[in-house]
Structure formats: structure tokens, C-alpha cells
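B., you asked whether I could sanity-check this one before it goes into the benchmark set. Here's the sequence:
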Amino acid sequence: MTEIDRADLLQQFASDNYAGICPEAWAAMEAANHGHVSSYGDDPWTVKASNAFRELFETECEVFFAFNGTAANSLALASLCQSYHGVICCNSAHVETDECGAPEFFSNGSKLLVAECEDGKLTPNSIHEIATKRQDIHFPKPHAVTITQSTETGRVYSLAELRAISEVCRTHGLYLHMDGARFANACASLACSPAEMTWKSGIDVLCFGGTKNGMAIGEAVLFFDRKLAIDFDYRCKQAGQLASKMRFLAAPWVGLLENGAWLRNAAHANMCARYFAEQIAGIPNVKIASRIDANAVFLLAPEEVLAGLRKRGWKFYTFIGGAARFMFAWDTDLVRIDALSRDLREVAEEFSTVSSPSAVSAA
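And here's what the prediction gave me:
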């Protein structure tokens, strides 16, 4: 292996998608890789994973498996809406900014009705405003709301906030969908049960993210209102989301769910985000942009500081409000966080020296 190869494999914090497969998911896939079983979900592993979700969520929900979050979200929303309906979402929601029109495509045209939000959170007032803004036949009829837990800006809806949103949804006859790409991180943050954060708080449909929680691929779509799941299997098939070897999409969930690895993975990632924030406290010209609820840290810093970090080999994104986003995963090594923190401090101090009035005068 060359030096370049080793550098490419160093742990980075641009995304929790960078991480590999956790041991529990890997072992479950290996265990499933024995013998021949029926295809397209008619296998023991898919049954076992589905039942594990029902036990975890304390209810007889309908469970489906998709390859990725875009498909899971888009098909779930399409199941809630006709083509003339609208879906209320936050302006930074993944369905609005990062899914290439897939929600509209799979619903044959349901329009996303976008609300301006702080911290990526919808509020009852913002939902009410959009739901009542236009009620004539010339405008898409609001029919669903989608929220992200945790949000794209790393915040977590409290149970009280979820229930308030659910209440306004019921008032206006709107279904409530949760994009849970980092659902496990939100559960770990709130120290609540999955049931409390979903159907007990009024969520109709959840897309539970596995990829960011330690799986290679895979999201689970859970319908708590089982009537909404009618023909969802056909949607999955038509959208290319019905895996022929479904056991390999389902088995990792068994590994994550049966002994609590899903929650341990998320709790570790959240802890690492807090640890990073502690390590960089007091660095000149570097400010944490928002409260740290889950596994994301957003930093505000001069472009010269960010460029210096990149020059030292660190990868990160600045696509939300210009803040640098650092994501922490199930396998995050505190030693690598220490290295990042040292580099950030050194680069920031170099910038402070160069840009200080005394340095300018001396020059």
C-alpha cells in the first residue's frame, strides 16, 4: 500500500457516511451468507429484522427496506400524497436541497411547500401559516409535513416540539413524516425510546437511517398507521428498491437492533461531537455556530483558517450557511479528533498572528 493510499484511508469528519460497517452489522451479514433462502424478502432474515423493529418500537408497524434515504423518503412521501398535494418542509430539509427532485418525481408532482426555518426546525406556526396561506383550487393542497430528526443543522426536536407539530398537523388534516437519517443519534440525545419519539408523539411514517448508524447501505421505512402502507411494496418494486437478495439488506438491521448496537453507535458519535467542541473551546476566530444536540458540529471561522485545515489534509463541507460541518460516526477515534483540534488551533493562531493589528504595523 502506497503513502497516498494510507492518507486516503485516514479517518475524516466530513460525513458519517465516510465510516465503514460496524462489527455487529458485518457479523450479521456474514451469518446471513450461508445456504440458500428465498428471494425478494421471503426469507428468515427479513422476517427477523421486521419483528425486531416491531419489538423496538412497541407496536405492530409495517416495515419495508430500501437501499438509501432518498428512495425511502421519496417513496414514503409519495404514499401519503396525490400528485396535486403539497408537502410542507423546512428550507434546509434534505428532501428540498439534496434529493434531486425525487420526492416530486415519485409522487408524480406533489409540490414541496418550503418554510423558512431556524436550526432546520419546522414550528407549529410555520406549518399553520403554509397550511392556511392558500386554500383555493389553483394551489397544491397541503397534505403532509416532513421533519428531519436530527435536523440538517444538527439540532434535535424535543418530544414536546414533536407533539406540538403533530397537534397542528391533526388540526389541518396533515400526515406527519419523519426523515430519520440520524434517528438513532436523536434517540441517544433525548434518552427516550423510539416509540416515544415516533408514534407516541404522532408520527405516521418514519424513515430510519441505517447507513449513518454503521451499515453499508439500507434504510427502513416504518408505517405506524398501517393503512398508509397499502401497496407500498409495489412502490418499492417500481422504484427499483425491492432487493432480490433482500436478506443482505435486512440482516444488518438484526445485528444493529438485537443487542442495542444502534444506540451505542449513536451515543458514541454524539459523545465525540461534544468532545470535539470541548477540545476547540477558546480557539481564536473560531466559533461554534449552533448548539450541539447530536453528532454534528458546525464551526464559523475565517476562510483562511478553513483553507489552512484543508491544506493539512482535512475534509469537511460548508454547504449549510457557510459554516464548516464536522460529523462524527460510530467508529470515531478520539486520537483523530485530537489531531484535528491541534491543527485547527495552530492554523487559527497563525491566522491571528498574521491578521493582528500589531503584525500589520510591524510589516
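One thing to flag: DSSP finds 16 helices and eleven strands in the chain. Otherwise nothing jumped out at me.
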